Amino acid sequence: ALAAAGALLALALAPWRRRRPVREVLFFPSPPSCIEALLAEAAGPVRTACPCPLPRRDCALSRLLRRLLSARRSLDVCVFTFSSPQLGRAVRLLHGRGVRVRVVTDSQYMAVRGSQIGFLRLAGIQVRHDQESGYMHHKFAIVDGRMLITGSLNWTTDAIQSNRENVLVLEDTEFVKPFLEEFERIWEEFNPGNYKF
Amino acid sequence: ALAAAGALLALALAPWRRRRPVREVLFFPSPPSCIEALLAEAAGPVRTACPCPLPRRDCALSRLLRRLLSARRSLDVCVFTFSSPQLGRAVRLLHGRGVRVRVVTDSQYMAVRGSQIGFLRLAGIQVRHDQESGYMHHKFAIVDGRMLITGSLNWTTDAIQSNRENVLVLEDTEFVKPFLEEFERIWEEFNPGNYKF
């Protein structure tokens, strides 16, 4: 009878436990702000205050970072150019935390000055790239296989600070599923075993 | 009584008239295909068969074109680079049909070889651009103020035929509204009256 009552209570509380799926639009450029606290908080209990004069505020970059840092199991990143040190730190931090991180990028842009790809590989993160003349021009990420982050934004400081850009964040199977399938398709196709050079 | 019966009938039929909101994901590259018939059909009753050997098929490009050509009242385009002759024809066609077309683009890329921007202006379409060092890097369009088309795809032949790209199509106020507001904000900010050169 106690077990039945417990099950009934769990059932009754279910709608409250289920939070509303994320549906968010972020526009860039993001105003200059300090996101050190956000990264430090995600890194662990030791926190030192950042001495920089930039305001700590809710902005497009901090929101994007929070969404990425919410990963608990996996992060699949598929971006044309990845040179933002802040996003690089966030991704390495997740990897260090045990999140399974996979990165796909474009071969022609992965070695440009300031690219984060080398740092990601040094940290032990798996990175794969195309070997085609066409660009791997996607700019999306999938958090825990259920949150899609996609838009016009390359993961560069210029894009974040200077460009007009948009990012959609959605927890919606109808959109997440095809992007997950696209990621897996590309991940397999770009398997180093298939490289021809 | 007749009017009341009519109203009642309209009310009863309403759920059938209301179609499901569009929610679509398109991945590129799009396979080589002939989209002449699609453009000709949209242009008017006179149709001549295209002699090219390319297959006519349902593909990412034909789907994107169909969504754009569905515009009845307005088309707001906000794209970094616009050089695809096919998308250019579709946009001019809509303008010729009386659809209010507005185009926002990036000043540093609007004059590159193959740009469609000059042809759009020649056709009488209003085009505005940024005057900043940062890029106007958006790649979205809004059809009739209610369908959002957005993703990584620039409106270029290379992007359509060679790149890995994605486009989301959604009729969803929660996403369309912020993009409409972003468009209006940029449209006003890029008013030629504000140009400083």
UniProtKB/TrEMBL annotation, chains A, B:
Q: Which CDD domains match?
A: PLDc_vPLD6_like (cd09171)
Q: Which UniProt keywords apply?
A: Differentiation, Endonuclease, Hydrolase, Lipid degradation, Lipid metabolism, Meiosis, Membrane, Metal-binding, Mitochondrion, Mitochondrion outer membrane, Nuclease, Spermatogenesis, Transmembrane, Transmembrane helix
Has the keyword Ubl conjugation been applied to this entry? no
**Membrane association type:** Single-pass membrane protein
Q: Which residues form a coiled coil?
A: none
GO terms for MF: identical protein binding; metal ion binding; phospholipase activity; phosphoric diester hydrolase activity; RNA endonuclease activity producing 5'-phosphomonoesters, hydrolytic mechanism
Q: Return the SMART domains for the record.
A: PLDc
Pfam families in the record: PLDc_2 (PF13091)
* Domain PLD phosphodiesterase: from-to ranges: 132-159
| Catalysed reaction equations from the record | a cardiolipin + H2O = a 1,2-diacyl-sn-glycero-3-phospho-(1'-sn-glycerol) + a 1,2-diacyl-sn-glycero-3-phosphate + H(+)
PROSITE patterns reported for this sequence: PLD (PS50035)
Q: Which domain of life is it from?
A: Eukaryota
Example GO CC term: the record gives: mitochondrial outer membrane
Where is this protein found?
Answer: Mitochondrion outer membrane
GO annotation, biological process: cell differentiation; lipid catabolic process; meiotic cell cycle; piRNA processing; spermatogenesis
Q: Which family does it belong to?
A: Belongs to the phospholipase D family. MitoPLD/Zucchini subfamily.
What is the name of this protein? Mitochondrial cardiolipin hydrolase
Please report the organism this UniProt entry assigns to the protein: Rhinopomastus cyanomelas (Common scimitarbill)
